[in-house]
Design a protein that fits this description.
alpha/beta; elongated; binds adenosine-5'-diphosphate; binds magnesium ion
């Protein structure tokens, strides 16, 4: 089932008294199926938040169409099934995380012991239970982020829309958010999330769309996009003589001196042995042999340069 369908969505802003034109989203299309983790990626300013705001009905598109659960946006009906984490969530500073999350749960129709139990449950899941009774204004940015994430989860939504859910978190916090996303999918929910850090998406997503300057430059199933093929092998040598370096260069290997070491980028795995043999015979010591695989980041940079 298609939960989010976006067709050629565009948004143009006109800024300030001179109405300076900003084409924030220049025709983006994608579809999110149920029970997948979909990464909406791209550098800062590429149009992720603007697209998400259009989907959530906070701003209206300049042109194009989109549906949520089959309903054209903006849709109050669809929003009942969606948990939304905005990019910069505002949490009333005089409430505690528990009060804030309960308030969000109450707005979604939860009450009584169900509300209390569910609040405790999502506070545990997002790791803010220990600070649940402190005023939000006394919490760090990361704790605020966890509170807002718990609020997005509280009403047990079918679809989670998370705008930069890892922002403001330390490496452990980022890993915890990744685990939460995986856990939500395991329980049958669908997760649509944005991030500007491609590596955060790589271990997580079934499918991605990568935006650049308001357009999608990469789109597809992650396992088709990043196949884990070895692109080249880095061979690092210590004590390599000029003669050896010359010999390897002549053999067609790219070589670079780094901090006294010679680093070779060997194309083709079948040539690695030949390089190692030459290196040892030439009196060098092998420090490291590292196969390099294409990452989402490499792919994005390649597509961005081609574009
Ligand atoms: N309300 C607005 N008025 C004018 N320009 C905006 C507005 N919101 C976003 N933009 C511009 O649109 C572009 C995309 O922004 P945004 O969607 O926030 O990107 P991302 O979330 O990918 O970092 C940026 O150039 C940004 O400055
Ligand atoms: Mg953003």
């Amino acid at each position: 089932m298609t939960l989010i369908q976006v067709d050629d969505l565009k948004k143009t802003f006109f800024l300030g008294v001179f109405r300076k034109r900003v084409d924030a989203v220049k025709g983006v299309s994608f579809a999110v199926q149920s029970n997948e983790i979909f990464g909406f990626l791209g550098p800062n300013g590429s149009g992720k938040t603007t697209t998400i705001k259009m989907l959530m009905g906070l701003i209206s598109p300049t042109s194009g169409q989109a549906t949520l659960f089959g309903h054209p946006i903006p849709s109050v009906e669809a929003m009942k099934k969606i948990g939304f984490l905005p990019e910069s969530p505002y949490i009333f500073p005089y409430l505690t995380p528990r009060e804030y999350i309960e308030m969000c749960g109450r707005l979604s129709g939860l009450k009584g012991s169900a509300l209390r139990d569910r609040t405790t449950q999502v506070m545990k899941r997002t790791g803010i239970e220990y600070a649940g009774e402190r005023p939000v204004r006394r919490l760090s940015k990361g704790m605020g982020q966890r509170t807002a994430l718990a609020a997005a989860l509280v009403a047990d939504p079918e679809l989670l829309v998370l705008d930069e859910p890892m922002s403001g978190l330390d490496p452990i916090g980022r890993k915890e958010v990744r685990d939460i996303i995986l856990g939500e999918r395991r329980e049958g929910r669908t997760v649509f999330f944005s991030t500007h850090i491609l590596a955060d998406a790589e271990s997580l997503c079934d499918r991605v769309t990568i935006l650049r300057e308001g357009r999608a430059v990469v789109s597809g199933a992650l396992r088709d996009l990043v196949r884990g093929d070895v692109i080249h092998t880095d061979v690092t040598l210590a004590g390599a003589s000029e003669a050896l370096e010359g010999q390897l260069r002549e053999g067609g290997h790219e070589a670079q001196r780094r901090a006294g070491l010679l680093v070779l980028a060997v194309q083709g795995q079948e040539r690695v042995n030949e390089v190692l043999l030459a290196a040892i015979q030439g009196g060098a010591r092998v420090v490291e042999v590292t196969p390099r695989r294409e990452t989402l980041e490499d792919l994005f940079v390649r597509r961005a340069i081609d574009a």
